[in-house]
Amino acid sequence: MSHVKAGGTAKNVKDSPGQRLGVKLFTGQKVKTGQVIVRQVGLTKRNGKGTKLAANYTIHAAKDGVVAFKARRVRRFTGKTVRRTEVVVE
Asked: Alpha-carbon distance 7 to 4, whole Å?
């Protein structure tokens, strides 16, 4: 007979590193073309003038300038309007 009990299977022990999401440059900061302004999952912040949206919803600067965040009203499919933050490079 064995002297050591059988080890059970371990659950919930896998862990993955953080994705480093969030706002990288804030209002009033200078930005160069191609720099990342916001990394996000889904469209939590919209892209405005002077910015472009990547396939993974990352917002990049399309030109040199200064970052600004503006609140704008967006119409949903149901007709309801909601406030959303728009990222702009001026």
From this structure: 9
